[in-house]
Amino acid sequence: MRPRDGWRRRMVRVGWAAAALLIAVPASGPAQTETGPRIEIKAHDFGTPEVTVRAGTRVTWINHDDDAHTVTSSTDVFRSPGLDTDDTYSYTFTQPGTYEYFCTLHPLMRGKVIVRSGA
Amino acid sequence: MSDGDDLDRRGFLQCMAWTGTGLLWSVAGGVLSSRIIGASAAEAQTAPSGFSFAQISDTHVGFRGEANRDAMGTFAAAVARLKALDPRPAFLIHTGDITHAQKAGAFDTVSEALKDVGVERVFYVPGENDVFADGGTEYLNRFAVGGPGRGWQSFDYRGVHFVGLVNVLDFKAGQLGSLGHDQLEWLERDVAPLASSTPIVVFAHVPLWAVYPQWGWVTEDGARALGYLRRFGSVTVLNGHIHQIMQKVEGNVTFHTARSTAFPQPAPGVGPGPGPLRVPVEELRGLLGIREVTYAPGAEKLAVVDRSLDP
User: Fold this and answer.
1) Of A81, B53, B135, B281, which is the most buried if we count CB atoms within 10 A?
2) Separation in Å, CA B125 to CA B139, B147, B211, B227
3) What are B87-103's pLDDT values in tens digits?
């Protein structure tokens, strides 16, 4: 029992250290994340189907429908889980480019994020 | 005859039912008649006089939206309806969206609850909610092991040929649900040896006919599948997905969409889009339900009766 408890305490300490590191990263990381647009999913529609942001911007989607939806990159760059009512999903776009996405439950729902270089 | 013998005989007859007692039936123009080829008059009198089966659809277990705060309660009511059917259905067909967005444990909840109905078998086809998160891995490992493809299937029951099709895998951006080349080829081979007089029942989640393509209520290559079935005298197509009853007759093909047990959806094109329709709580159960399908020898079409969850 005793050695195992000690192991568990050590693991908890490692866990806290890792958590502290994770918290520290955004503040000290070289690329600042900018909070970007929030896309409101409603009536089987990505409210703003096309947004343009600077590299390093975090885009958030929120689902206002009773139906579940996903935010899924057409080229496998990002993939949200199923979003229930009021669930949100965020993705930070670090590289310039055009990112098309759709809902894998309702593939006629489509959107696009255009990312310009941060400079 | 002892009880034991009787049970064995019954078991044997049940077994025969699954392997194609169609041989017993005289079939013409897609309609089974009660005349039995090569059978004596006495045997004819003991021959089965048709059968019924039930359809349940769009149970969306895990749904907690505004449109139905008690989707588990209405699902339980649907199971009770199925249990109370008289005569007892021979088997059940679930036409997909078993789960709501593949909620953990939902497949278990549904398959356990449907065991309670007390039928010999439940046949499933998936809806997009059952496969979107993992490309169908969980669904296929659970329901489609040993099948001829990715969830599609066929079987014969008392001379009627049943085909379960899958039109919700591999959704692509901007495209509609489809069956795909492999499944269509399988379907063509599957029905090729059948006499045109064999009654056909097809079940799939998304409607095989164009109910409302603007909302994705269509199967892109459904027409090709129907092409393989046109020569048959009686084709009954059972779908789900749109959570409301619609019917269409096209030649020998009759299409039926079923109600959900979880929530209704708007009529095609009414309102801003598809999705759970909020209705006054006292109206909800009248818009949810299950379906009973009866095959009667001599009748031109299978009888489809929808039963709401209204008390």
Assistant:
1) B53
2) 9, 12, 19, 21
3) 999 999 999 999 999 99
All residues at 6 or more sequence positions from B25 whose CB lies less than 8 Å from its CB, including other chains: B32, B33, B36, B158, B159, B297
Residue A49 contacts B where some CB pair is shorter than 8 Å: no
Q: Tell me what pLDDT residue A16 has.
A: 52
Is the distance from CB of B217 to CB of B274 less than 8 angstroms? yes
Percentage of chain B lying above the pLDDT 70 cut: 84
CB proximity B173 to A under 8 Å: yes
pLDDT of A23 strictly over 80: no
CB contact under 8 A, B66 and A102: no
Strand-by-strand arrangement of the A88-93 sheet = A34-41, A57-63, A88-93
**Cβ-contact A75, B74 below 8 angstroms:** no
Query: Chain A to chain B, count of Cβ pairs less than 8 Å apart?
Result: 70
Q: Nearest to residue B48, comparing CAs of B291, B233, B294, B234?
A: B294
**pLDDT tens-digit map of A48-87:** 999 999 999 999 999 999 999 999 999 999 999 999 999 9
Whether residues A108 and B215 touch (CB distance < 8 A) is answered with: yes
Cβ(B277)–Cβ(B230) below 8 Å: no
| pLDDT the model gives residue A6 | 52
CA separation for the pair B65, B303 (Å, rounded): 34
Cα dihedral B100, B93, B209, B33, rounded to 10, equals: -170
Residue B237: both structure tokens together: 């197509």
Rounded to the nearest 5°, which phi and psi values hold at A58?
-95, 120
**Chain B neighbors of A107, CB-CB under 8 A:** 171-176, 216
How far is residue A15's CA from residue B261's CA, in Å, rounded to a whole number?
Answer: 45
| Residue A27 pLDDT exceeds 70 | no
**pLDDT of B80 over the 50 cut:** yes
* Amino acid identity at A54: R
Query: Does B174 contact A107 at a Cβ distance shorter than 8 Å?
Result: yes
pLDDT at A12: 52
Judged by a CB distance cut-off of 8 A, whether residue B271 touches chain A is yes
Global ipTM: 0.81
Is A101's CB within 8 Å of B66's CB? no
- The answer on pLDDT for B9 being more than 50 is no
d(CA A5, CA A17): 18
